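Question (not urgent): is this output format expected?
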Amino acid sequence: MSQKRVLIAEDSSVIQNLARKILEFQNYEITAVKNGEQVMQIVDKEDFDIVLLDINMPIMDGMECVKAIRALGDKKKSNLPVVAITGNAKNYSEEEFKAAGFNDVLVKPLNFDRLVEIVNELTEE
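Got this back:
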């Protein structure tokens, strides 16, 4: 069975590294980038099983990025599970996250058990 691939977009290297360690321990293969523009470049070239998107990122934020993913011509890619990571849940309501195209939302400080749970759920065949 091949490893599931997780793309993490997070401009905080602390959170990025923690999430990477925890998910690698769960046998996921991790690719990490710093902003939404990099997400779009790499999703174009490679296949992932799930994307974790920080909402507040430079260049292209999580909200713009999820909309761009959902608008992709490739059905497999446009239907990727995408999870929002937000430090300030007050910026958007759960409805707004759902409307933008997110499958789920994780609030900082990250609950890593919940992170693993959501990633497991959304990448199950």
